[in-house]
Amino acid sequence: MSISASNVPSLSSVTKYIDEDEHEKTKMALIFDKYNHRLATLPKERGWITENLYMYQGFWHQSKRRMSFETVMALQDTFNACPTDIYLATLPKSGTTWLKAIVFAIVNRNRYKNDSFPTHPLLISNPHNCLPFVETEIFRNTPTYVNDPHSPRLFATHIPYTSLPRSILDSGCRLVYLCRNPKDVLVSMFHFANKLRDKSRGPMRFEEAFELFSKGAMPIGPYWDHVKSYHNVSLKHPTKILFLKYDDMKVDTVNHVKRLSTFLGYPFTEAENDDGAVQEIVRMCSFENLREVNKHGDLREGIPNDAFFREGTVGDWTNHLTSEMSEILDQITNEKFHGLDILF
Ligand code: A3P
Question: What single DSSP character describes residue 133?
Answer without folding.
Answer: B
